[in-house]
Amino acid sequence: MSSLTRTPGAARSGSRPRSPMAAPQSFLWTRRIVLTLLAGFVLLPVYVMVSSSLKPLQDVSGKFQWIPSTLTVQPYFDIWKTVPLAKYFVNSLIVASSATVLSVTIAVFSAYAVSRYRFRGKRVFTVTVLSTQMFPGILFLLPLFLIFVNIGSSTGVALYGSRGGLILTYLTFSLPFSIWMLIGYFDSIPRDLDEAALVDGCGPVGALFRVVVPAAVPGIVAVSVYSFMTAWGEVLFASVMTNDATRTLSVGLQGYATQNDVYWNQVMAASLVVSVPIVVGFLLLQRYLVAGLTAGAVK
């Protein structure tokens, strides 16, 4: 009879030899502990918001309790009565959506031109677009305010206090980053696709929309999410460039603080409600967003 050679670890039923490339157990446990602590650090404010939004006002104003003694959903109904939250919601949706559509449309044409064509001043244009991100937003507040006021007084076009003026304001922030990001994404798309489309009879615009744009969907989605989030949660310019009729959600939430009291439970409830579109959109577009943010990093 022939004898079989067995490894020491193979004598036990169901055991496998440990791979030399496997991480040690100490590293695995350290990673679990660190990730658990980070998850708790991130989820703790969310729990405080949710629990506070389900408490009566007197419980929120008093000593904080980790486990609410009384639960109520009344704050979620009161938020629509204390301030005109629905109007602010519509204003934010119109402004953020319009700024996103304009920013992405202009960025697609600009980035495609920079990526595919050679022209005088191309490098200067790219550096200028990128350098605008170095300046803080508050630096443009007073110049834009004066420009809008002077345009309104000289031409009669009311930009100050209007949704259109706020949309143009948000373009100054989202458009440079959108162009710069799409340039890197278009550079990662082979030029052979454009040339094949041109040979088949498409013009430059046809090649852009029929070939390049479908291949650049992840990058366009990432730019769209960035532009929408920037416009949705912006506070500084919205507090200066809007009035009672055009006020957005980020400014309208201040209406829950009156001279006599602060409706903390309604503030928490309203904050959760206005966060729903961003969270839902991020979850639905997460796959495209990750692909768009990492595209062009490795060529």
Structural description of this entry:
- The chain is an all-alpha fold and 299 residues long.
- It is built from 14 helices and no strands.
- Helix 4 runs parallel beside helix 7 and helix 4 runs antiparallel to helix 10.
- The N terminus is likely disordered.
- Belongs to the binding-protein-dependent transport system permease family.
- Its main location: membrane.
- This is Carbohydrate ABC transporter permease.
With helices defined by DSSP (H or I, 4 residues minimum), what is the helix count? 14
Helix content: 55-70%
Report how far the terminal alpha carbons are from each other. Answer: 59 Å
Radius of gyration: 27 Å
Q: Provide the low-confidence segments as ranges.
A: 1-5, 9-13
Strand content: under 5%
What structural class is derived from the secondary structure elements?
Answer: mainly alpha
Question: Averaging pLDDT over every residue, what do you get?
Answer: 82
Biggest sheet architecture: none
The shape is: flat
**Pattern of helices and strands:** HHHHHHHHHHHHHH
The tally of strands reads 0
Membrane topology: Multi-pass membrane protein
InterPro entries: BP-dep_ABC_trans_perm, MetI-like, MetI-like_sf
Pfam families: BPD_transp_1
Protein name: Carbohydrate ABC transporter permease
